[in-house]
Write a structure and sequence with these properties.
The C terminus is likely disordered. Helix 6 crosses helix 7. The longest helix has 15 residues. Strands 1, 2, 3, 4, 5, 6 and 7 form a seven-stranded mixed β-sheet that branches. Strands 18-19-20-21-17-22 form a six-stranded antiparallel β-sheet, covered by helices on one side. It folds into four domains: 150 residues, Alpha-D-Glucose-1,6-Bisphosphate, subunit A, domain 3 (Alpha-D-Glucose-1,6-Bisphosphate, Chain A, domain 3, 3-Layer(aba) Sandwich); 99 residues, 3-Layer(aba) Sandwich (Alpha-D-Glucose-1,6-Bisphosphate, Chain A, domain 3), CATH 3.40.120; 104 residues, 3-Layer(aba) Sandwich (Alpha-D-Glucose-1,6-Bisphosphate, Chain A, domain 3), CATH 3.40.120.10; 84 residues, Alpha-D-phosphohexomutase, C-terminal domain (TATA-Binding Protein), CATH 3.30.310.50. Helix content is 36%, strand content 22%. The protein has 461 residues and is α/β, with parallel strands linked by helices. A hairpin with a 4-residue loop joins strand 18 and strand 19. It has 15 helices and 22 strands.
C-alpha cells in the first residue's frame, strides 16, 4: 500500500511508479481531489512519461466516479494545464515529475483559475482522504451521477494566448536553438513559434520520458552543454532550454554563455512595467540585487519574498503584481493567472532581442550586474546550529545587517549572502553576490569554512 508520507510533498504528489504509487492510488487521488475542491468539472493533462497516460486516465475515472465531468487535454506542458485551468475556470491536475528520472511521476494540482493547491490549501485534506480510503480498500461511491470524461485539444488556444501577450510579428529574423530535452517543449514550441520570424533549430524534440540524451533539468550546467555547442555551431542568436514539463526556461546567449535567470527576471520586469508603469513586481530573496534595482529604475515597486512558488503566487495575488521571477527560472505573470510559464518568458526575451540590433549578450549586460557564487550545497548534521554559528560570526560587524525571512540573509556594504536549509534534505544552501569576483570568493570561503567545520561534508549544487 502506498506510503503517502513519502509521496505527498509540500506542493505536489511525487514518487516512483509503481514502487511507491500506481493507477489504483491515482484513482483515489482523483476522487479525493473532487471531494476537497467540490468541483463539478475538472481538467486533466499529462506529460510524455511512460506511466503518465495511465495515471491520468485513472485519476479521471476517480474524479468522474464522484460526479465530476472531466476534460482531458492529453499531452501538454504544465503551463498549458495552467492555461486550461484559467481559460476554462476549472480545477486542474497535471501528471508530471518535471525533471526527475523516468521512473518517477507526480501530480501538480490547482483550483479554478490556476490557483495552487499545497499543504495549506487542500493537499493535506486530499492526502487524509486517500489514506482513509486506502485503509478501507477504496473510495465510496459519490452521491452524484457518474461524470463524463471527454477529450479536448487546447494546444492552439494556449499558443494563441501566449502570442496575444507578446508581439513578435515585427522583430528582425532570429535563429533560435531550442533544447527540449525530450520533454514537453518538443510538443509546445513548434506550435507557439509557428509563423513567427524565427528560424528554429530543434534539439531533442522527440517526446521520450526516459530522457535518452540528458536530464531535462537546464539549471544543472551539464545538461546545457549540448545546447551551448549547438548555438555556436549554428551561429544562432539565442539558445533556449526547457525542463521536462516545460514550465521552466533557461537562456543561452550567442556566445554559448548561460544567461542568469535573475537577468531574465530583470529584463522581463522592465518590459512588463513598460506596459503597466507603477506596478508591483515580485522577486525572491536570492535573486540578484540587480532585479529590485531594475524594477525601481523602470518605475515599479519591488516586493521581496521567500523562495518557492507558493510564496510568489501568494504575493502576486495579495499585491496585484504584474510579474514575478525566481532564480530557478520560474517566471510568473498576472496575465497568465499568476501562474508560471517559461514559454511566455522566452517570448519576451525573443521580442526584446529581435526588437533591437545588438546581440543577446549586449542586451542582457544591463541586467546582469554583479558576480555571484551560484547555489552551493553543504551536507550538515545540524542545520540550525551551523546557521547560528554563521550568524554569530557576522553579528556586530560594522555596516552588516541580517534578516531571517527565509534562512539567514546577511548584507554588507557591497555584498550579501543567504544561507537556507533544505526542507527535504540535510543541506544548507549558500548564495553569495558582491560587487566583484574577489569579494564573492572571500565571503563564500568564510561562510563555507564555518558551515563545513567539524568534519561536515559538501555536495554540488
Amino acid at each position: 500500500m502506498a506510503d503517502l508520507s513519502q509521496l505527498v510533498k509540500a506542493y505536489d504528489v511525487r514518487g516512483v511508479v509503481p514502487d511507491q504509487w500506481d493507477e489504483t492510488t491515482a484513482e483515489l487521488f482523483g476522487a479525493a481531489f473532487v471531494r476537497v475542491t467540490g468541483a463539478s468539472a475538472i481538467v486533466v493533462g499529462h506529460d510524455m512519461r511512460p506511466s503518465s497516460p495511465g495515471l491520468a486516465r485513472a485519476f479521471s475515472q476517480g474524479a468522474a466516479g464522484q460526479g465530476a465531468d472531466v476534460t482531458g487535454i492529453g499531452l501538454c506542458s504544465t503551463d498549458q494545464l495552467y492555461f486550461a485551468s484559467g481559460k476554462l475556470d476549472l480545477p486542474g491536475a497535471m501528471f508530471t515529475a518535471s525533471h526527475n528520472p523516468a521512473r518517477y511521476n507526480g501530480i501538480k494540482m490547482c483550483r479554478a483559475g490556476a490557483s495552487p493547491v499545497g499543504q495549506e490549501t487542500g493537499l493535506a485534506d486530499i492526502r487524509a482522504l486517500v489514506e482513509r480510503w486506502l485503509d478501507a480498500g477504496g473510495a465510496p461511491s459519490g452521491d452524484k451521477p457518474q461524470g463524463t470524461v471527454t477529450e479536448r485539444d487546447m494546444l492552439e488556444d494556449y499558443a494563441a494566448h501566449l502570442r496575444s501577450l507578446v508581439d513578435l510579428t515585427g522583430i528582425r529574423r532570429l535563429k533560435a536553438v531550442v533544447d527540449a530535452g525530450n520533454g514537453m517543449g518538443g510538443h509546445t514550441v513548434p506550435t507557439v513559434l509557428a509563423g513567427l520570424p524565427i528560424d528554429l533549430v530543434p534539439m531533442y524534440f522527440e517526446l521520450d520520458g526516459t530522457f535518452p540524451n540528458h536530464e531535462a533539468n537546464p539549471l544543472d550546467p551539464k545538461n546545457i552543454v549540448d545546447l551551448r555547442h549547438e548555438v555556436l555551431r549554428a551561429g544562432a542568436d539565442i539558445g533556449l532550454a526547457f525542463d521536462g514539463d516545460a514550465d521552466r526556461c533557461f537562456v543561452v546567449d550567442e556566445r554559448g554563455e548561460p544567461v542568469p535567470p535573475s537577468a531574465i527576471t530583470a529584463l522581463v520586469a522592465a518590459r512588463e512595467l513598460a506596459k503597466a508603469p507603477g506596478s508591483t513586481v515580485i522577486h525572491n530573496l536570492i535573486t540578484s540585487r540587480a532585479v529590485p534595482e531594475v524594477i525601481k529604475e523602470s518605475g515599479g515597486a519591488p516586493v521581496r519574498t521567500r523562495v518557492g512558488h507558493s510564496f510568489i503566487k501568494q504575493e502576486m495575488a495579495r499585491t496585484g503584481a504584474i510579474f514575478g521571477g525566481e532564480h530557478s527560472a520560474h517566471y510568473y505573470f498576472r496575465d497568465f493567472w499568476n501562474a508560471d510559464t517559461g514559454m511566455l518568458a522566452a517570448l519576451h526575451v525573443l521580442a526584446a532581442l529581435g526588437g533591437q540590433d545588438g546581440t543577446l549578450s549586449q542586451l542582457v549586460a544591463h541586467y546582469d550586474r554583479y558576480p555571484s557564487s551560484g547555489e552551493i550545497n553543504s551536507t550538515v548534521e545540524d542545520q540550525f546550529n551551523r546557521t547560528n554559528a554563521v550568524k554569530a560570526a557576522f553579528a556586530g560587524r560594522e555596516g552588516v545587517t541580517m534578516d531571517d525571512l527565509d534562512g539567514l540573509t546577511v548584507t554588507g556594504v557591497n555584498w550579501w549572502f543567504n544561507l537556507r536549509p533544505s526542507n527535504t534534505e540535510p543541506l544548507l544552501r549558500l548564495n553569495v553576490e558582491a560587487c566583484d569576483k574577489e569579494t564573492v570568493e572571500r565571503v563564500r570561503d568564510e561562510v563555507l569554512a564555518i558551515v563545513r567545520a567539524e568534519g561536515e561534508t559538501s555536495s554540488p549544487a
